[in-house]
Amino acid sequence: VFLLFFTTHEELQTLDVDDAFFSTPEDIAARALKPQGGVNFIRTFKKQVEDQAINLPPNLNELVQNATYVQSPDKLVWQYFYNLKGSAKYPFPGGIFQWARYRINGTGLNETEKIFSESLNKHENTLTLATLRIFSNGLGQPHFHFNANEMGYVISGCGQAGVILSGVTANFNIGIGDVIFFPVGTQHYIKSLCDEDLLLILAYNTGNQLETLRMNDYFHGTADHILAQLFWKEQAEFKKFPTPAK
């Protein structure tokens, strides 16, 4: 079972090998592939009723006599396979964020991290992947991303997600198997509601540094006298908010 993410919100356009073959005129396919028997051999191929991309032949053992794969070198593998377990962890008060990310400064990265960090930056429409673990009754505080949509899949636990718009907040419960989506620039939060941890795998449609602004950062970064005007509270009261931890 695979969990797949694609960097498009449009209908996915896919052309399978068999679809391409059967859509090609017989004489063109024969001239391109040059099989023994020419066009007559091409005519022995019959299009199956079911899509073979998702349905294996019932007589697969008879059709395939040998299937071997040579192990690819790590430097090639890690361009397309991001080792989330081997990537850095970023603890926060409510949980742990583990992220296979691109980093401008590669100092301190292990060999695997360097490879997939460089790979992320090579591909224009790549994905940045992460896991988010929110401890029981913990909170992933309100934040938004300047340069990426975010999509998540709930692996375990249960919780609540919220999308905060101007004057409106949409809250909805999430559980195992649910997929959530936060458009770029949309402030959102996630909290755990179960006794067990809430665990999600997240995908961001950027290969660059993910630009994120959290509520405690922008609230504390706004001058006290501005906050006093906005909320009609004495300036000194805003000293009660602690400075965000780095």
Short description:
Residues 107-239 form the Cupin type-1 domain. The chain has 246 residues and is α+β, with helices and mostly antiparallel strands. It has helices at 17-23, 26-33, 38-42, 60-63, 74-80, 111-122, 215-221, 224-231; strands spanning 89-92, 95-100, 128-134, 139-145, 150-156, 159-165, 168-174, 179-182, 187-192, 198-204, 212-214.
Structure description:
- The model has no long low-confidence stretch (mean pLDDT 89).
- 19% of the residues are buried.
- The chain has a six-stranded antiparallel sheet with strand order 1-2-3-10-5-8. It has a five-stranded antiparallel sheet with strand order 7-6-9-4-11.
- By secondary structure, it is α+β, with helices and mostly antiparallel strands.
- It has helices at residues 17-23, 26-33, 38-42, 60-63, 74-80, 111-122, 215-221, 224-231, and strands spanning 89-92, 95-100, 128-134, 139-145, 150-156, 159-165, 168-174, 179-182, 187-192, 198-204, 212-214.
- The chain folds into two domains: 10-62, no CATH class; 79-210, Jelly Rolls (Sandwich), CATH 2.60.120.
- Strand 6 and strand 7 form a beta hairpin.
- The chain is elongated and about 90 Å long.
- It holds the Pfam family Cupin_1.
- This is GL25 protein.
- Residues 107-239 form the Cupin type-1 domain.
Q: Helix amount, in percent?
A: 10-25%
Terminal Cα separation, in Å? 38 Å
- What is the count of helical runs? 8
At CATH level 2, the architecture of the largest domain is Sandwich
Q: What is the CATH class designation of the largest domain? A: Mainly Beta
Question: What's the CATH topology label of the largest domain?
Answer: Jelly Rolls
Coarse morphology: elongated
